[in-house]
Amino acid sequence: MVVVFALIGLIGGILVGLFTPSGAQRIAGQDASDRTGPAPTATVPGLPDDFYTVILSSISNSRDRSVAEARADAFRGSGVENVGVLDSSRYASLTANYWVVYSGVFSTWQDAVDHRDEIRRAHPDFACYAKQVTDQS
């Protein structure tokens, strides 16, 4: 089963690269200046100021957010639940300038570790890890 998901992910990545030369999708009418401005300082709506999660993937934000959203969709398709994307520049505890694909929002470290372990049992090839996320303010 893991091989099937890895193959699906590989094919999906190839297709994204084939149909978008830079590997990122562009929105009609959007120019490069739209993506290079400063990141907003507000956190993702609905997320607490301080929480624990499982980091599934990090993608340079020099690439369009749609690349991270596609990766999140791939994780959802493989059975991982509660997957989202956030901008790491909005959080003090994360390295800036990445789209972070995460799974779950937990109030304790142990809950995040337990979730990470569930994901690893189901998908031993996923290099995910638990992380505390804190707001910049």
| Alpha plus pi helix count | 4
Alpha-beta classification: alpha+beta
Give the total of domains: 1
Specify the CATH class.
Alpha Beta
CATH architecture: 2-Layer Sandwich
The level of helicity is 25-40%
* CATH domain topology: Alpha-Beta Plaits
- Strand composition percent: 15-25%
How would you describe the overall organization of this protein?
This protein has about 140 residues and is α+β, with helices and mostly antiparallel strands. It has a single domain, classed as Alpha-Beta Plaits, CATH 3.30.70. The chain has four helices and four strands, in the order H-H-E-H-E-E-H-E. Strands 2-3-1-4 form a four-stranded antiparallel β-sheet.
Write a compact overview of the structure shown.
With 137 residues, the protein is α+β, with helices and mostly antiparallel strands. The protein has helices at residues 2-19, 33-36, 65-77, 109-122; strands at 50-60, 83-87, 98-106, 129-134.
SSE topology:
Layout: H1 2-19, H2 33-36, E1 50-60, H3 65-77, E2 83-87, E3 98-106, H4 109-122, E4 129-134
Antiparallel strand pairs: 1-3, 1-4, 2-3
Could you name the key traits of this structure?
137 residues; alpha+beta; Alpha-Beta Plaits; 4 helices; 4 strands; disordered N terminus
